[in-house]
């Protein structure tokens, strides 16, 4: 009898949907105020999740959802990294 493992769910800061952590990308802010993309989802710091979708990432940039979530101005390079991550570059 194998026990079903619980799938970790996280909320996308743009769509507000609870989805499997694997279908999201994590953006992290460290105590030092550094912001970076965390593809592993395991780095230390305050995390915010965005759906792996270019349109959603662009919406996040326009609405400044990540800025509010992480309490810091997220540089546009981060959004470019997110888009590159989604497009598999």
UniProtKB/TrEMBL annotation:
Domain of life of the source: Bacteria
Signal peptide bounds: none
Domain YlxR residues, every copy: 10-83
Gene3D superfamilies from the UniProt entry: YlxR-like (3.30.1230.10)
One matching Pfam family: YlxR
Name of protein: YlxR family protein
Species: Gracilibacillus oryzae
